[in-house]
Amino acid sequence: MGGQKTIAKQIHEAGGDSVLALKDNHPTLCEEVERWLNTETSPGRLPQHETVEKDHGRIEIRRYRLGDEIDWLESRHEWAGLQALGRVESIRIIGDPTTTEFRYFLCSHTNWLRLATEVRGHWGIENGQHGVLDVQFGEDAHRARKDYSATHLGQIRRMALNVIQPNDPAAQESLRRRKRRAMLNDDYRSRLIFGDQMPQSS
Fold first, then answer.
1. What digits encode the pLDDT tens for the residues 62-94?
2. In whole angstroms, what separates CA 41 from the centre of its chain?
3. Which of 36, 71, 158, 161 is the most exposed, fewest CB within 10 Å of its CB?
4. How many angstroms from the chain centroid is the CA of residue 146?
5. CA–CA separation, 46 and 64 (whole Å)
6. Which residues touch 169 (CB under 8 Å, ≥6 apart)?
7. 3-class secondary structure, 58
8. What is the pLDDT of residues 137-191, one digit of tens each?
9. Helix 186-194 vs helix 149-164: angle between axes, to the nearest 10 degrees?
10. 3-state class (DSSP) for residue 154
11. How far, in Å, CA of 65 to CA of 168, rounded?
């Protein structure tokens, strides 16, 4: 949480806007925001904006709500530039199954269209990265569930992906080949990790 507050402060001081996702690692704040937005949503006090997308038999409905009357939130001053709280309801229909997901956000602006654009961009990055992680590291097949093992292993896989991901857009070598070389070649692995600052062996 402290890290996100620092990021929000840096963005605000640089004159930018931020949209920060609230998750279970902010349990108290997440619960307060969720309760308030759900209460405001029930009687229809917050305007709702809806988008619908249809593609290859899949329908995705997203409903956006943004509330800026947040004087009640005691911790609001801890988040630089905070102006509004947002809720995104995502409904996905693929054949008979229908799934619904709610996500909550701290926003430094009050424009729902900007929120929609930013959230969609974030989802695109997450979904794209997840696909690569599943192909390269078999993420979906992992069954680690005890304590924080799934979270820790997920972070390690993302760190490994960042290391083997080529920085040069023109690089021809595949991720699979780079991963295999890093596994078998100590010098190559060190160059990936340290770059030109690779430590010299004594």
1. 999 999 999 999 988 889 999 999 999 989 887
2. 24
3. 71
4. 23
5. 10
6. none
7. strand
8. 666 666 666 777 777 777 888 787 777 776 555 566 777 888 888 888 888 888 8
9. 90
10. helix
11. 40
Q: Position 3: which residue type?
A: G
The SS3 call for residue 115 is helix
Number of H helices, E strands in the chain: 6, 5
- Matching residue, tokens 């070649």: 185
Positive or negative, the CA dihedral 46, 119, 107, 17 is negative
Task: Describe the crossing of helices 112-137 and 175-184 by its angle, rounded to 10 degrees.
Answer: 50
Q: How far apart are CA 4 and CA 169, in angstroms?
A: 30
CB of 24 within 8 A of CB of 104? no
For the question of whether the overall pTM of this predicted structure is more than 0.85, the answer is no
Q: What is the DSSP letter of 146?
A: S
- Asked whether the beta carbons of 150 and 161 are under 8 A apart, the reply is no
Question: How far is residue 128's CA from residue 54's CA, in Å, rounded to a whole number?
Answer: 19
The number of beta carbons lying within 10 Å of the beta carbon of residue 19 is: 20
Nearest CA to 60 among 12, 93, 96? 93
